[in-house]
Write a structure and sequence with these properties.
243 residues, alpha/beta, Rossmann fold, seven-stranded parallel beta sheet, 7 strands, globular, NAD(P)-bd_dom_sf, Sc_DH/Rdtase_CS, Oxidoreductase
Length: 243
């Protein structure tokens, strides 16, 4: 048997992250999950609890400290890092937070989770990624390129920044043999959908929500040999929402 490959993924508890763990696990990969919450025993993948690392990505010091914990679990090689964790705070009435009503602490909180943690983890694990000639996938969003009716201003701009960061990282990590790409999901069916999603779906050319597994398949492709000359790209997975 060949070497078992290893994935580190942030934000695995539901939706796209959950589907991505299942996709890679089905291919025989070892998956290390990172989140603020303890491991949920209902998550159905092998070695889930022992391969879970509790990290508060909103706290820079805790994120930096967690890198050594990750290093201790991956034995010198990391084949893929998927930065999937993301938060989009709402107003007290559940409304979208705009540039006019988002306070500074909220801006900082969102950017630490959605943006800064991605480069901190990638930089901290660069040696392990280089040793495996691995891949990094940053999960951006359709909201990063156009104003979205539900996603707040801090979320949208953090995802736009992450798209730019992906290009910078592709340039910097390329000489190490590490590819860096992003995926920008559109409307994806999850356990929690914002009110009004049905109105958006009516206007989609494909007239349906995307499935988390469809997004996970694109993540898988970007971490596979079939995408060996793709780096610095942001792939939209949105059912032609922006045509």
């Amino acid at each position: 048997m060949g070497e078992q490959k290893t994935l580190v993924l942030t934000g695995a508890s539901r939706g796209i992250g959950h589907a991505t763990v299942k996709r890679f696990s089905s291919e025989g990969w070892r998956v290390l999950t990172c989140s603020r919450q303890p491991f949920d025993p209902r998550c159905p993948w092998p070695g889930g609890e022992e391969n879970h690392i509790q990290i508060d990505l909103a706290d820079p010091n805790k994120t930096i400290a967690a890198i050594e914990t990750i290093k201790g679990k991956i034995d010198g090689k990391l084949h893929a890092l998927v930065n999937n964790a993301g938060i989009s705070p709402k107003g007290s009435d559940g409304a979208r937070l705009t540039t006019l009503d988002t306070d500074l602490r909220t801006w900082g909180h969102v950017f630490h989770v959605n943006f800064f943690s991605c480069v901190v983890l990638a930089r901290g694990l660069q040696d392990e990624l280089a040793a495996a000639k691995g891949s990094i996938v940053n999960v951006t969003s359709i909201a990063g390129s156009r104003v979205h009716p539900f996603a707040g201003a801090a979320y949208a701009t953090s995802k736009a920044a992450l798209a730019a960061l992906t290009r910078e990282m592709a340039h910097d990590f390329g000489p190490l043999g590490v590819r860096v790409n992003a995926i920008a999901p559109g409307e994806v069916e999850t356990a929690i959908l914002s009110p009004g999603t049905d109105k958006i779906v009516e206007k989609l050319p494909m007239q349906r929500l995307g499935q988390p597994s469809e997004v996970a398949d694109v993540v898988w492709f970007l971490c596979s040999p079939q995408s060996s000359y793709i780096s610095g790209a942001e792939i939209e997975v949105n059912g032609a929402q922006h045509v």
